[in-house]
Amino acid sequence: MSATVRPMTLGYLPGGATGTSVTLNHMVKLARDGSKDPLIIETAHALVANLPQYDRLGEIRALHAFVRDAIRYTNDPLGTELLRTPRAMLEMKSGDCDDKATLLAALLRAIGRPSRFIAVAMHGSDSYSHVLVQTPWRKGWINLETIKPVPAGWGPTGATKVMVRNV
Predict the structure, then answer these.
(1) 119 HSE (CA, 13 A, CB side)
(2) Domain 8-166 is in which class?
(3) For a tag site, which of 80, 104, 108, 167 has the least CB within 10 Å?
(4) Is residue 115 within 8 Å of 135, Cβ to Cβ?
């Protein structure tokens, strides 16, 4: 694997919310940097090229569907938290929820759409176990779940805690 696509391995992470915060901060940097990568920009523009001008919801849906459907969900190696660059995700075509979310945020940013990461703890757990992307739509934010075959707007049920990071 070339240096430009090597996954980033996070070393020791503190437990709980502090570790989630560190991970989200790394994801923000990867998404921001990735949105400037010519391959990410070219990919984002190609995915929305056939849409009518100013079809913002169509753009959101097209980028979401690409990451959801064309990038396979695969767990990280046991005992290791990997964060992959958006470019690595395009080349490998697989990653976990944080990798897929990072790619989607970079693609959105590459076409001028802001986004944020939402880490969630589920069903009363104190542990954050999943992350998804949101982007502004109308007067709020639209959920973009990348690991389940669901439409834009769907959000996980049973989320008891959330942590947010703007990209």
Answers:
(1) 24
(2) alpha beta
(3) 80
(4) yes
